[in-house]
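forwarding from the other thread:

> can someone predict this with arginine?

sure thing
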Amino acid sequence: MLMKQAAARIAPLTGLAQEEVLKLMEVPPQETMGDVAFPCFVLARTLKKAPAVIAGDVAAALQGEGIDAEAAGPYVNIRFDRDVYAADMLEELGSESFGKLQLGQGERVVIDMSSPNIAKPFGIGHLRSTVIGAALYRLYNEAGYTSVSVNHLGDWGTQFGKQIAAYKRWGSEQALQADPIRNSLELYVRFHDEAEKDPTLEIEARDWFRRLEQGDEEAKQLWSFFVNVSMQEFNRMYKRLNVTFDHTLGESFYNDKMGAVVEELQAKGLLEESDGALVVRLDEENMPPCLIIKKDGTTIYPTRDLATAIYRHHVMKADRLVYVVGGEQKLHFNQVFTVLSKMGHEWATTCEHIPFGLMRFEGRKMSTRRGKVVFLQEVLDEAAARALQIIQEKNPNLEQPELVAEAVGVGAIVFGDLRNNRLNDVDFSLEDAVSFEGETGPYVQYTHARIQSVLAKAAETGTYDSSAAQEGTSNSSGIVGDTSWSLLKLLCDYPAYLERAVLRSEPSVIAKYTIDVAQAFNRFYHAERIADAAPQVKSFRVKLAKYTAERLACNLSLLGVQAPERM
Ligand code: ARG
């Protein structure tokens, strides 16, 4: 808001359009230098003067009417009269339309997210895809897009042949029902161990998968049993993470849609034989060939993704297709998108892989083969247990401590993930993530709860007239202290952060901003009195606290984290 104000006043002095000025504006490296800065380099050529001379002229012309301008070399540093501007800024924060962007103009973005594999553990990679995807879903909506989420379950592939073969040999319904993923995993691990000694197992597995692809009753029944029990377990997790999907369509959904893709590839002369398999060559693009049909005649992961993309574009009417999937699948998506474009689908350019880095959990990695895996459920349980411990120490009288602990524990995991640039590899430390201090979810939640009690106390110690805040700030000075001014400016900057987060598909922009807001509030809270300040001052500060709490709660909810009223 301040930048806009400054740009409006600078533009006529320079011959530049207001928009151009706005783009050039900066925030000075130190707050003491001013609120905003305007660099004069670009004007040197047209005005035929040195930037520093121009800065001097502009500063002199700007001075006055609530602005204090000063040239510092080629920059004009501008300071606003807080007592003049604070009221407008507060009003803007309170307006209905604040923070709503129209970047997307209703464009439909189909988001491929979560997408765990049936009969395998829900891994940390799937957790990242789920929380990053869910955050993007809400951020895109907030910015004027229409988000559509799809859980692209890994429910097809030769591994189901192995799963059925192993189940037939050593499995039981009761064991699988009791602990689906763990039991599936045990069977899977046992299959691989025993197959090293007994090669007939592999043959058996291939046979079962072929039967499955051909629609054999028994194979299909076992398969849907596996899908159902896995889904029950995944759904428990989604509930805890508070994530829902507009569509859950596994890879198997595309079984009857791949024939058309293969025919289209054939008709367009893109399929070539290679070692008995059918591939699309991508030599010109410097990529290995994209495998379409395996030697044994079965389809494969990329074939299903081709059919999926076509379906999402045509049937789901996607304007944009994004895939929130780990960086290790970069080549796969490159290949799929390139094949789509070779097929002549111009909309291939609307497909985007949104990768993220690896996450280790206290140094442990994921591996489903050897059975050494981290189960997300255990991670969430552990986080909630630790949160409960901290809460009971800090606030032994809190009502429903388990509920709050669940919100804090799960929130710690979600926030702890989202605060990292998504491309970074993360070594996740539970202890750090659950801490109430530092750049954590619980720190933000705690700040939010603290504001609630400040507001409650302020209401007790006398009513305040909310309209007095505006009057008060415009005709008296000294109401807006340094820390409240910094906080107020930061709150007004929210739309710029939202825009950046959306344009980069980067929830960490919002997570980091949220921490900055919480820190700015705590500085304000320690430096300036709220509940027992003089009436006009109190009114302003209470409002500021209230908008801060609303910002924190809104941002947490965009990220998928709850904001308990008390902690
Ligand atoms: N199920 C896959 C895996 O766990 C992820 C699927 C991602 N989405 C897609 N359309 N390929 O690796």
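Residues 367-371, 466-476 have pLDDT under 50 and may be disordered. thats all i got for now
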